Amino acid sequence: MQRFCFALDLVDDPKLIQEYENYHSPGNDWPEVTKNDLDAGIINLQIYRTGNRMFMIMDTDDNFSFEKKAALDATVPKVQEWEKLMWKYQVPLPWAKEGEKWILMDKIFQSGAKKQ
């Protein structure tokens, strides 16, 4: 298993943040998007928020690659529709490259007996 952690900001507007959370509440997921994630090798995906900053934890199988995920995303129109819709709510971090959303974070610390 692999684990990746990402950060992204939301537009700092309470109404838009609530809309974004509604899209991510139980039962509101888009089945085509969820299936695409599973097909890409994403086992578990969690998003946390504080203020307008978000943090995403993504656990994948050992065969997952970002290239494979991008290739699959490009073949599913509903995934493209979802990503376009989410840009209404999302703001790239200041150091993001053009068109880049979620920024992969560097792990700088871990405590405990189990090291990943």
Automatic annotation (TrEMBL):
Pfam families: rhaM (PF05336)
Protein name per its UniProtKB record: L-fucose mutarotase
Native species: Adhaeribacter arboris
InterPro entries registered for this protein in UniProt: Carb_Metab_Mutarotase, Dimeric_a/b-barrel, Rham/fucose_mutarotase
MF annotations from Gene Ontology: racemase and epimerase activity, acting on carbohydrates and derivatives
Domain of life of the native organism: Bacteria
Lineage of the species this protein comes from: Bacteria, Pseudomonadati, Bacteroidota, Cytophagia, Cytophagales
